[in-house]
## 1
Amino acid sequence: MADNRRLLMLLEAQARGYTVAAAFLIRQLVAVWQGFDKWYDGDLVMANSARSATLTESAQKAVQTQTLSYMKFVYQQFEDLDFPTEAEIDAMDDENTLRAISALDEWNRPAEQYRYAKSIGKSDAEAIAIAIERVEALGDLDMQLAMRGQANKIFKATPKITGYRRVIHPELSESKTSCGLCIAASIRVYKKKELLPIHDHCNCGVMPIAGSEDPGNTFNEEDLQQLYALAGDTSGQALSRVRYKINDHGELGPYLVEEGAPNRSAGRTLPKHTNYSRRESVDAQIKSLNGSLPRLLERSRSGEDVAQAIQWQQERLRVLNAEAQEMARPRRRGRKAA
């Protein structure tokens, strides 16, 4: 039998580490965009987008490594559950586990949000606040996508895993309670080939199910009893009555919403740069930056102070060119995941 006491310690430690990493990324991203005042300058917006993309992908790699380590220790608490090799995990790679859009297109959205807000009469301060709110939301969801994708690949690569479930973390929210959506969805068992439906500002973790061993259910039941007791009769009943549905968001994959809420992707055409493969995304970003960077260099030669923008675009190009070279090499095989 799995050691539930040890599993709970691991779950809580992973959740704290993830929360710290996500908060740090969001602070970095806000620092890039806060005080920015060139919202209509395409080359400078691209520089901010390039910096945001590089920061985000670095944080995503860190949370993927953290999730890998967490799952390795979790597996050790189950009897006869072998952790898959690195090659086996890589073989489960799925382009839909991250955003199906170019990172530069994604990080152009704060500027798009600012410009739209101004076009409908918002003040500059209001438009900036709206743009920064979008920055925070993008960073938060990108970290969720990285954790979800890594866990899903590990589960799919493990024959003895029969499914998994979300585990609520009420202690991580400011209100010290989980949202009704998470509470309602916590009773759901997901097949290991299913992606965990996410939503804005979700604190949930994941726990595998091996045969009849389902420790996540035990942890959720304990938290739910405490939440209902603390909420009292009326609020507790309201929490327990929340109903949800899963929308198929064209860019984010399965997305958790309250029953009756509109589909965020329904009735509209997704951007033409949606559903890139990673290689196509890298190539598109390199092309965009190679078009923008010469213009910035010319502006610098004319005496304009665009040194930071040039630095951020050059840094992004180095990252992308290195990734393009790595993708061109044959896949590594046979190494055991650390």
## 2
Amino acid sequence: MTKLERVDEANKVIEAISRHGRRFFHHDGRVSRFELDARGRVWLIDKYSGNRVYTHYPYRWKHFSEGGTLKALCEGLRDYIRTGEPIRREWFGPFPDWRCDGDPWGYGTEGMEALRADIADLPAVADAKTA
């Protein structure tokens, strides 16, 4: 799979997240998306500001309107785009009850189940490798 094809697959994950629960990555009909520049670097177009966000910067991302957990998810998707190594399915639960009452995303049980169903067959998301 090419880098550009992986951008499309990562964008499918972002789109799925934007359709469920609290609709992260969605604002006023706009959805955040990844794109590549001419040098092959990965950028995120922010749904709220509409600005390009440089995803290779190690600290706070200027113009990124989501929180730290979603930044970490975007970093994982960025790395998938760069290397082909998928993010872990565990990002999407199910979660134990002791962790934010089993709902750290605030999507509710039905919302997370629908999201997991949407991303089940996407190559950007895979089960953890066993040693």
